[in-house]
C-alpha cells in the first residue's frame, strides 16, 4: 500500500490551508454543527495540528471570521468626481457583489454578532464595522469623523440583515437590498 506523499508547507501556508478548509465548512453549516474532527479532516491534517495552530475551535472560527468580514478593496469602481448619491450606490453595489461572491460564508460569519455571549466575536465584528465605516466615509469623499462613524456603524448591522434576507431567506432581491442600503448610508451621513 503506497502512501500519498505529504507536501511540506510553511507555517503561514499551513495555517491558511486550515482557515480555507474551515471556511468551506462554515459556508454551509453553523459553528455549533461542525466538530474539530470534521475541521481537521477537511484541512487534511491531524486534530492536534489544529490545536497547535489555533488552540481551539473558537480560535479557528475567529480566524475564519476575521478574513470573512473583509471585502477586497482593490476592485472598487472609480468614484472620483461623482455626486455623493452616485458614489453611495456604486459603493453599495460593489459591497453587494462581494457579499454575493463570498455568499453563505460571508453571511454566516459577518452576521455572527451576539454569537456565544459576544466577547471576542463581538470585538471582531465591532472592529470590522468601524473599519467599514471608515471605508464608506473615504469612498464617499467625507472626512473620517467620529460622529459620522458612530452613525454608520449601526448601518453595517442593517446591511448584514438585508443580505441575510437576500442570500439566505431569498425574501428580498439584490435591487431591494441595493436601494435600502444606499438610502441607509445616505441617511446616516446626511448633515443634521
UniProtKB/TrEMBL annotation:
Query: Which Pfam families has this protein been placed in?
Result: TetR_N (PF00440)
**Residues of the DNA-binding region:** 35-54
Under InterPro entries, the record lists: Homeodomain-like_sf, HTH-type_TetR-like_transc_reg, HTH_TetR
Task: Establish whether keyword Transcription regulation is in the entry.
Answer: yes
Provide the alphabetized UniProt keywords: DNA-binding, Transcription, Transcription regulation
Describe the location of the HTH tetR-type domain by residue ranges.
Answer: 12-72
- PANTHER family the UniProt entry points to: HTH-TYPE TRANSCRIPTIONAL REGULATOR BETI (PTHR30055:SF234), HTH-TYPE TRANSCRIPTIONAL REGULATOR RUTR (PTHR30055)
Q: What is this protein called?
A: TetR/AcrR family transcriptional regulator
Q: From what organism does this protein derive?
A: Microbacterium memoriense
